[in-house]
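Posting this for the archive.
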Amino acid sequence: LFCPIFAIRYFVKFYENRDIHLRLKSTKVTPINVLYPGYVEVSGRAETNEEYLISPWGKSECIYYKFLVEKWVSSGSGGSGGSWETYLQETKLLPFTLNDDTGKVKIDKTKAVDFELHIDNELITGSFTKITKELRELLKKRKREPSWASQLRFTEKTIYPYEEIYAFG
């Protein structure tokens, strides 16, 4: 009974992502000085004129950071099922441009910008790994103190000054 439901769900998801994949595949990286309306890909260094942010966990200078804490919530069925739910999320972004050798383009943060970035820091707490003192202090400053038995997943993602960024839009 469940197999057809899962098959239909993944079939629909495949076709939703297929359109994006085909656009990415058919679009080539465009030099910034010859951008045109429509879907484009650009690659360049992230630069800002603002004073850099400091990421909360890694304490690194950055242009963007996302600090996310998720809590494992059991499905309650007595099994090992459950899911990660957002417990705390903090995101900051400075106005910035992508610069290549031909020019620069402003990344507009007023548009629903979302970044797919590498994870700079990650820790999953549980029965064998405890929350570090540093992370406990970060939660305390943000008025979030989990119970001692909570299983948490901490992640931090950043865009560093002059980091090479690839953008599609």
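Strands lie at 41-47, 53-54, 61-62, 64-74, 82-93, 96-100, 103-107, 121-124, 152-159, 164-168. The longest strand covers residues 82-93.
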